[in-house]
User: Fold this.
Amino acid sequence: MPANGTSHEGAFPVLRTPRLLLRQPVPHDAEALARIMRDPRVHRYHVSSALQGPNEALDAIHSLHRAYLAGQAVVWAIELHRTGSLIGTCGLYALAPGCTHAEVAVFLDSAHWGRGIPLELAPVVSAFARGVLRLSEFHALVDPLNRNAIRMIQRIGFRRRAQADTGTGTTVVPLGMELHILPLGGTAPPDATLST
Assistant:
């Protein structure tokens, strides 16, 4: 996969952690993805609308694939190694040529909340963003009422900012949301692997 914001036709990047496989979303995921995204607890604090069913989820999967091919986003399906179950998505959005940051978002099945999944994802996704996409920051847009998400991203290392000026553009912060930024540095832990 080439640097951030460049279109490509290469193999989709696969990331692994001790419990998780991050892979390309496929049509077979539509039903599980729709179930996760219809859950009002999952969608409560997000600005995008909830997926209404498998057909809408399938359209979203095709849209994510087009965005990947255009170099605009990389969105992984999060799968549990031990069961093969889809438990959510993790994505890097707003990729553009010359931009040194990405917006990051995780949608996780509420049955898997409180199990440290975002903490496990952060090192391997950060290593991919630094090493492959050559990014220097992650931006997270968070509803200030979503105290659990704010606590989690602060544990990862995100810090709140009024706005972000990265020299290549400013992240637009929607009304009612907060911007949190994570500088990317360091190295991936030995138990996180990447294959492309």
Observations:
- Residues 14-195 form a domain with the Aminopeptidase fold (CATH 3.40.630.30).
- The chain is about 30% helix and 25% strand.
- Helices lie at 30-38, 40-43, 54-69, 117-131, 147-156.
- The CA atoms of residues 108 and 115 lie 11 Å apart.
